[in-house]
Amino acid sequence: MRQAIPFGKYLLLDRISVGGMAEVFKAKSYGVEGFEKVIAIKRILPSMGEDRDFIKMFIDEAKIAGQLAHANICQIFELGRIDGAHFIAMEFIWGKDLLQIQNRLRKLKQAMTPAMACFVVAKACEGLDYAHRKRDPLGRPLEIVHRDCSPQNVLVSYEGEVKIIDFGIAKAASRSSRTMHGVLKGKFGYMSPEQVRGLPLDRRSDVFALGTILYECLVGDRLFQGDTDFATLEKVRNVEIVPPRQANPSIPEEVERIMMKALARDVESRYQWAGEMLADLHRYLMGQDQVFTAKSLAAWMKEGFAPELERERQQLESYKRLGREGLIAGVPAAEAKLDVIEHLGPAGQSEDPTVLGGPSFDDLVPEGATQISDAEQIADMHAAAMAASSAVAVDSGWGDDPPLPSAVSGEVAAPDRRGDDHDFVDEGPTTIFGDELGDAPVLPAPPPPPRVGRAT
Asked: What CATH number should be reported for the domain whose range is 5-93+305-349?
């Protein structure tokens, strides 16, 4: 039987991933009358326990996402502290992220249909539009901007659900932690031009990212990809776009129009709300002879990932044999002090940020750079580029190494060298899979655990 680790009232089953600042576990939660549920636990590493800035960011992530209750945003249950270690208990999603889906399509020599792409992005629009419009109990706008919308942060469950994850660097009016000046945060290829320029950000920055995702789903290639991070940022800044139908003539004209409006360089020319983009996507979908639905998406997921799904079903069965006795048997259970800071349910949602210390823009400017005017002007411009961001997170998008299949809302994606089914790859922060870190429990590395959630 699989070894489990007691953690307060939870039982840690497997460590999914670990980054430089936090680790994510698949876990079990228990209740009365035999109630049990597989969830995810994100815990700050012992080495980061004294980093007050990171702890504030971690708490902000939970508090921002904990105010959101929507079918297309992953759920967060609790923010707590055990033996001085802060943790977030959140929904575990059985399925795959959009990047993995794109890679699987390439392996199968298939293209994502316009209907499938528009359906997935429409659901992402629903979740983000809800977050953008969210108000506090007094009716004041929360002014939430995700700021890290990317294929890795769009999850699709085996039941055809679409969930936005990772509010780790989200902007909100109430956010307490500060941005580290001069540190770029986010995935470079999915930033908006105003984000790169260091201008104030609002919901329309997320709309631009949605346009980028839709483009890449249908064109099958990166929209903004330079030879260096600096070159990628410049492509975003200048909005250098190959027209979608030039890259893929099978894209419907109406879908190209939606794409290009979302990708307008001028924020006033874009969709002003994700809900406006959603309306146009729905109009296109409803006009098709066969309407694409969540059932259609679920059918593709179960067929496209059939081997993984069977393996994960077996894994789930093994978890069922781990009951409450696991809290007192096997591994000695320390007298852990559980300090619940906040219950963020019943439908607060969140994800795990892509956590890694990032370079300053100075590190990205090539010697003798003159793309704009001079390197000093460029550095000044980009030093403020992520002034709205508060997580120490840098990810330049796809690169040379494939990603670790993300099995939970927002765990740190990492290279996965165990398979050959990833053609598009994530240059994200490197995750050490199953690596021992200090007094963190070391658990057996499972097969790539996908994420699937409850049906909406």
From this structure: 3.30.200.20
